[in-house]
Design brief:
Number of helices of chain B: 11
Structural class of chain A: alpha/beta
Strand content of chain A: 25-35%
Oligomer: heterodimer
Order of helices and strands of chain A: EEEHEEHEHHHHHEHEHEEHHE
Largest interface: A-B, 33 and 38 residues
Number of helices of chain A: 11
Strand order of the largest sheet of chain B: 6-7-8-3-9-10
Order of helices and strands of chain B: EEEHEEHEHHHHEHEHEEHHH
Shape of chain B: globular
Radius of gyration of chain B: 19 Å
Chain lengths: 289, 265
């Protein structure tokens, strides 16, 4: 199985006035074509910065110190020029953010924003053609009245509707890799469940690979084929979703799982305090197919 | 004994595009020492109810009875002091320019609680009651972690010696390990001080583990009320069933329960 994305020994530090702060301590992640992979961890664990490195955004930050390789479709994103990285964004790589309403531009209609996205791939695309394409795309995310939505500004639409628009835009140019950073966290649970199912069906149809970033273990279990658990800038455990959830081995993963409130009402767990065992070496589960 | 009772509580907002019925004829009570959860999605009216209980909003009709007295939005300092709020996001609910101690002390000064010379001691005691070191009172909110800040919000509410705490999504901005610790703390404090909680949230898994009873709201109406175990094992309303069915779950027992509920629909 060839990997579409292969992150090898990735280190990240930020230069500050008081010296360098290390955020990632050499992480390895790979994603095959068409695979949905989750990176799960708490705030500050390094999951969002990993996505920003894959997108080629942190490379443009002056204080960031990045080492290691990020092979995407055979090319090292870290070794590319800023221009080459920019060319990948919105075409081969796209991203869905946590809060759909604030990540869409409030000053432009949905139609205008679609045109901008579609012209990333086809700069000469006419307005009429882009409207037609946008209508089809909104149809695919089960938006009932695409014409009305296209003429609307984001504030005129509900959060769930904006999330669907974001999904449609992110997949508009048939990217090879979709990065989703806590998608739907800002939405109601039932809306979140619907949009996740929708997103899963679409990426499966298109054969898109996904790096799904989340702190919500339940959402991860329902979406991902494979899971990486990150703690303080280290991958501590990874494996196929069912295996990892049925049999978590690392002390940190176990603590994380035990802390999730259950709808079966087993009571509030006794949560272990931060422990050295959380820093134990990585555990990899077998990948028997 | 009933501590707070809402009788036919209604709130209608007049907007240019017509009236919005945010809360419709809600009758509900919480017993002293109970944790009553109010659940529902955005727009279900849960925060509007909280605001009326706190006296931030006046009800359009109906009334609130608290410990034998009828309360409207204009209420005595004594009543305001006994009903306190803990909000979702402690970073925006704590004044960034005040030390956390000053935030906790504010209620003591406003309600004139205890001797002036002993109020800093009371602040330190409140911080210690929520598991923070007393000398943390000099720190700025920005220098604390999310979990520590939420503990400060709880200490601020506790310092006023309340009888009722309105908890509006108190842990939904926290990481799961931190959430578990804060939920345990809230449970312990309720038992220790005989507090009554109105716990507002959309997270049903949290509700299952902290609430004695659950009130389910949809579009401003109370559509189901019951003991927590009963609501989760045999919900009566389809809407409740749907809400539970949408919770992302992590283990096989939970999956079983969810499938059972889906079959019963």
């Amino acid at each position: 199985m060839s990997a579409l994305l292969e992150i090898k020994d990735l280190h990240l530090g930020f230069k500050t006035l008081t010296g360098q702060v290390d955020v990632l301590h050499g992480i390895d992640i790979d994603i095959a074509t068409g695979e949905k992979v989750a990176l799960v961890g708490e705030s500050g664990s390094g999951k969002s910065v990993t996505a920003r490195i894959v997108l080629g955004l942190l490379q443009e930050t002056r204080t960031a110190r990045i080492k290691g390789t990020v092979q995407f479709a055979g090319q090292d994103i870290n070794a590319m020029s800023a221009r080459e990285r920019a060319a990948l964004r919105g075409t081969e790589l796209s991203m869905i953010f946590q809060d759909p309403t604030s990540s869409l531009n409030p000053m432009f209609t949905i139609a205008n924003q679609f045109t901008e996205v579609l012209r990333r791939r086809e700069p000469k695309l006419s307005k009429a053609a882009s409207q037609a394409r946008a209508t089809t795309l909104l149809d695919e995310v089960a938006i009932p009245d695409p014409a009305r939505v296209l003429g609307s500004y984001p504030f005129q639409l509900s959060g769930g509707m904006n999330q669907r628009v974001m999904i449609a835009m992110a997949l508009a140019n048939k990217p090879q890799l979709l990065l989703a950073d806590e998608p739907g966290t800002a939405l109601d649970v039932s809306v979140q469940a619907q949009t996740l199912t929708l997103m899963r069906d679409l990426v499966e149809q298109n054969g898109t690979s996904v790096l799904f970033i989340s702190h919500n273990l339940g959402v991860v279990r329902e979406f991902a084929d494979r899971v990486y658990v990150i703690y303080r800038g280290n991958i501590v455990e990874d494996g196929p979703t069912e295996v990892l959830f049925a049999n978590p081995q690392h002390a940190y993963t176990r603590a994380l799982m035990s802390a999730v409130p259950r709808i079966t009402g087993v009571g509030l767990p006794e949560v272990p305090e931060l422990s050295d065992t959380f820093l134990a070496p990585r555990i990899r589960h077998g990948y028997a197919s | 004994m009933t501590l707070i009772a809402l009788n036919g509580l209604t709130k209608t907002f007049q907007t240019p595009s017509g009236p919005v019925h945010a809360v419709r004829d809600v009758t509900l009570d919480a017993k002293a020492g109970e944790c009553l959860a109010i659940v529902g999605e955005s727009g279900s009216g849960k925060t509007t109810i909280a605001n009326m209980i706190l006296g931030i909003l006046a009800a359009t009709s109906g009334d609130i009875n608290f410990d034998g007295a009828s309360l409207n939005a204009k209420r005595s300092a004594e009543h305001r002091r006994r009903i306190q709020l803990v909000q979702q996001n402690p970073l925006s609910s704590l004044n960034p320019k005040r030390s956390v101690g000053a935030s906790v002390r504010l209620g003591l000064d406003v309600y004139n609680i205890g001797e002036k010379s002993k109020r800093w001691n009371a602040v330190e005691a409140a911080l210690e009651a929520v598991g923070l070191p007393g000398d943390m009172r000099t720190r700025a909110p920005a220098s604390l972690s999310g979990g520590q800040r939420q503990r400060v919000s709880i200490a601020r509410a506790l310092a006023c010696d309340p009888r009722l705490l309105v908890l509006d999504e108190p842990t939904s901005a926290l990481d799961v390990l931190v959430q578990a610790r804060v939920l345990r703390l809230l449970n312990d404090l309720r038992a220790m001080h005989g507090l009554t909680y109105i716990f507002i949230t959309h997270d049903l898994a949290v509700v299952r583990n902290v609430a004695d009873r659950v009130a389910v709201f949809q579009s401003g109406q109370l559509i189901e009320l019951g003991e927590t175990a009963q609501i989760f094992s045999a919900p009566k309303a389809d809407y409740t069933r749907q809400l539970i069915g949408a919770v992302p779950v992590v283990d096989a027992a939970e999956l079983n329960l969810r499938n059972q509920l889906a079959r019963g629909a």
